[in-house]
Amino acid sequence: MSIEIKQLHPLFVGEVSGIDLARPLAPNEQAELAAAIDCYAVLVFHDQTLDDETQLVFARNFGKIEPPQAYSGARRLKHAEFADVSNLDADNKPRTPGDRKRMNSLGNRLWHTDASFRRVPGALSMLYAHALPEPGPKGAGDTEFTDLRAAYDALSPAMWEMLEPLIAEHSIFCSRAQIGFTDFTEEERAAMPPVPQRLVRRHPGSGRKTLYLASHASHIVDWPVPDGMLLLRELIEHATQPQFIHAHRWRVGDLVIWDNRCTMHRGRAFDETQRRDLRRITTQDIASTLDQAA
């Protein structure tokens, strides 16, 4: 069976069938998927059967794996390359409302781009669903994505010209402070200092210009802080209009890949008394956005 892709949104998102990600990729399959990521920015694979080892092998087809975030506390997962996108503690039980890891993870419900707070930011994220809660009044834990290429295209030429040279400073502590969580150790803060990133970048695969936004972005370098904060907020509001957004409703066995270089995403609420076990691997970009061609 050959790979088939169905576009799920008028602007982006491809649903991929005809491939088993648990087996090694042939070179032509890897090239086809890489081209699809450049085109669709988000790829959805249903009915996959992956364990942590096979997910890790698959992810390594697409680049160097991002190092784990510096964060104290017991790890639930064996491999440090994984981000534990679950509501579970080291004993596989749902975390309590005041749990420190839970409070930090709530920042993922803000619109963001994975690892933009690192000097070399994230490129592709690959999130796999092991266990999911039943939908309820609080929601189903969907993940929403927005196409920052289309959002850039929708701006005026005058805005393109103004935004082109701008640099934003990104910090994980900025996004967490927005939800009132500031409980980080000095070691954690020292391990993740603020970094500058371009506000507009050219996607290396598609060649398209794209905004590069995240709740991690605190201000515009060399601008008065209030002006920069307002600009960032206005751009995020622009980029998260309904016409740019796709919501993914998770099923067990789903693997979703998204390109952090040209999308933002956010998690949505769910019943946190039930188990929700998703595990993410993110590849590194090739360099800081400042070191890449604009």
Structure summarized in a few sentences:
By secondary structure, the chain is an alpha+beta fold. It is about 25% helix and about 25% strand.
Write the layout of secondary structure elements.
Layout: E1 4-7, E2 14-17, H1 27-40, E3 42-45, H2 52-59, E4 83-86, H3 100-105, E5 122-131, E6 143-147, H4 148-153, H5 157-163, E7 167-170, H6 172-178, H7 186-191, E8 195-198, E9 200-202, E10 209-211, E11 217-220, H8 225-239, E12 245-248, E13 255-259, E14 263-267, E15 277-284
Parallel strand pairs: 2-3
Antiparallel strand pairs: 1-2, 3-13, 4-15, 5-13, 5-15, 6-12, 6-14, 7-8, 7-11, 9-10
Explained architecture:
The protein is built from eight helices and 15 strands. By secondary structure, the chain is an alpha+beta fold. It is globular and about 50 Å long. Helix content is 23%, strand content 24%. It has one domain (4-291): Double-stranded beta-helix. The relative contact order is 0.24. It has a seven-stranded mixed beta sheet with strand order 1-2-3-13-5-15-4, covered by helices on one side.
